[in-house]
Amino acid sequence: MSKSLARGDSTARSLKDHAISKRIEMIARGVRLQGSRLLDIGCGNGLYTIKMTQVGAQGVGIDVEQDRVQQAQSFGVRHEADNVQFLVASGSRLPFRGSSFDLVTMIEVLEHVERDRDALRECWRVLRPHGRLVLFVPNKLWLFETHGMRLGRRELDFGFIPFVSWAPEFVRRRIQRARIYSSAGLLTLLREEGYKARVIDYMWPPLDKEIGPLRMRVLRLALRQVASRLERSPLRMFGLSIFLVAQKVGE
What digits encode the pLDDT tens for the residues 32-46? Predict the structure, then answer.
């Protein structure tokens, strides 16, 4: 992870979180999890990796942070996840032989790695022929900057800063704490690194955080219904995250 980019936070605290069920449902619509050999890069606390193995995948979760790998291992024991292992490793230098995995996932991770092209090339290397890469990344069209920002030497950690996400790239490079992607830019990046897009969609916020008015469960559920409808409308392209499934080609 680059020193100029913020450490990513785990996007789930429990296997019951709506964020997990929502993302895993989207992944399962785009790829085959049952029987797939999986590599989850930037696994964090391991909950997404564990959930994917619970629905049929087998594989490995990696993270560059030792404390997160230890937490993932603890969750793995707690949830009796016997078909997954967790290791400390970098997505830019994967400790696996080529063509080792059917599926590689990076869930809100690509924006935090030091060089995203290096990570995508490593994913390509370890994927089997016609293997699938699954990405969730921040959407430039989302109104708010969710990773905070940098002003000189000051780090502003609070999220949901309006309009910063829409700033031109030459401005964002000076203040960003994580990259942000447009769908067109992401498609171009993947094509240049040897992938063919198979699925592209958008996800609106899962609204798991119980902050402010969202402490009211009824309100949270109502807003999730609104988000679900927006995801099925032309406004889905303004969602929080871009969801993309790409296939390895060129081998």
Answer: 999 999 999 999 999
